[in-house]
Amino acid sequence: MAIFLMIFALLAGMALPIQFSVNSQLRTVVGSPIIASGISFIVGAIVLIIISLFGKGLYVKKEWLEAPWWMWTGGLLGAFYVSATTILMPRIGAAATVGYVLAGQVIVSIIIDHFGLIGANMHAINVPRLLGALLVIGGVVIVQKF
Questions:
Q1: Structure letter (DSSP) for residue 67
Q2: Of the ranges 22-31, 46-55, 123-132, which one carries the lowest mean pLDDT score?
Q3: Which residues of 44-68 are buried (b: 16+ CB within 10 A; e: fewer)?
């Protein structure tokens, strides 16, 4: 199961630069990174709704309405992310965009793990984790410079 999850994660990671490039090209057709991002979200939402309908169905439950407000911000964060990458990709390139996004993910992930934020298991910041983050950031600088 662990190997399947690793492959699944790698495939998800491989999908990102493709998505960045596709959305960037769509941006040139529709004339706006925000409209291109919106189209991307609409297509994705339609696909997920169809999958949900063929799965267990789509039912609004009482627990949904009782959830804290911040649990509903995933779509907002996703919209920011997709719009940002649609804007960045044609300006700084796929490798630099992915690199900076990855560096940001590693930095915030270490903070989330250290403090156990948003329901994450706690993993203290330590020298190897900081070194790993610095290596990612250094790699981003090298990729963008050359």
A1: S
A2: 46-55
A3: eeeeeeeeeeeeeeeeeeeeeeeee
